[in-house]
Amino acid sequence: MASAPRPLVAGNWKMNGLGASAAELEKMIAEAGRFNGRADLTICPPATLLARFAGIAKGSPVAIGAQDCHAEASGAFTGDISAEMIADAGGSAVIVGHSERRSYHQESDANVKAKANAAARAKLVAILCVGETREEREADATLPRIERQLNGSLPDHFDARSLVIAYEPVWAIGTGLTPGPKDVAEVHGFIRDYLVARGKGTGEAVRILYGGSVKPSNAKELLSIANVNGALVGGASLKSDDFLGIAAACL
Ligand code: 13P
What we know:
By secondary structure, this protein is of the alpha/beta class. 39% of the residues lie in helices and 16% in strands. It has 10 helices and 8 strands. It has an 8-stranded parallel barrel with strand order 1-2-3-4-5-6-7-8, surrounded by 7 helices. The two termini are 21 Å apart. The model has no long low-confidence stretch (mean pLDDT 97).
């Protein structure tokens, strides 16, 4: 069996952060050296901070990403930003298909796939989110839901450098609830098998992150589950101590 991919801990700041939050990024960068070669770190601030954060993080072990992109490279799409603009601002990754985009902005699997293809076009890492609702989990419909999302939203071509999957159960986001280790292992194993079957030899190495109420106190347990190759962290990524505490669980 291939060795496990190097873990990635990514912070999704959502609609949080002003200029003063650069101090948190600077603290993360100051500590990031100890993860060098052992875990990758990415921070996805709001678009307003993208260029500033990319400038601060340049040459450091912390990568900067965006939280969403439009599928087109440019055009009359008021308020949107393209994958090319993210790359131009110094970003190297973009989250696509987050459940908050899927539900508040009615993004379909086809939209998410177009965005993932845009990320590949601009040479950004796509962090593609999938996950079931509480109703789906209770109806034993988790794996069919994940399979539909993967069928519909994976980009046309991918490898371990261009794609990261984040499994984020919708009911675990921001609630303090997390699935049990057996449930996490089941879904991550399912996603791994899917990627191996579709990935033309690269599916073993694509990282599969867990996301949803990850914090320093539960990170070790979650990150030691088979096929969990890191975390996508919301609230706890806003504070450098918490974010670094989660990353430390990878070591
Ligand atoms: P929380 O870590 O705040 O639950 O958010 C998870 C998430 O949605 C990350 O994308």
